[in-house]
């Protein structure tokens, strides 16, 4: 299952690169037209596209998580936990970083405009599909498998 998701993720990432390059070049395609025709279609598209990429990245990396080490602020210590007691998925973190760079890069293309709501929609998609990934991780893990992955 992991290899299938990794392959699907690579193919889907290629599809997203094509969409982004098309948008940067000011070219239209049927997906852009559909997004314009639907109410909030652009935001739904951002949520679904980057959420789907997150799902492929998380499952394709076998639910690998990252830790930012020990964080101490005086007497307050998060220990080995981070992000409010959770260790984020590596795949979701990578997608989030790429999304931030891509959205901010729109400033440099005349055919694009930076929209904070697009970035927010991307973040909502990443979070929702991370929750779906968490559900899948719990559903498909048995006994010691989940602890050996983390």
Automatic annotation (TrEMBL):
Asked if the record carries the keyword Transmembrane, the reply is yes
Bilayer-spanning residue ranges: 44-63, 84-101, 116-136
Sorted keywords for this record are:
Membrane, Transmembrane, Transmembrane helix
Q: Reply yes or no: does the keyword Transmembrane apply.
A: yes
Protein name (Swiss-Prot/TrEMBL): Trypsin
- Please name the source species: Shewanella insulae
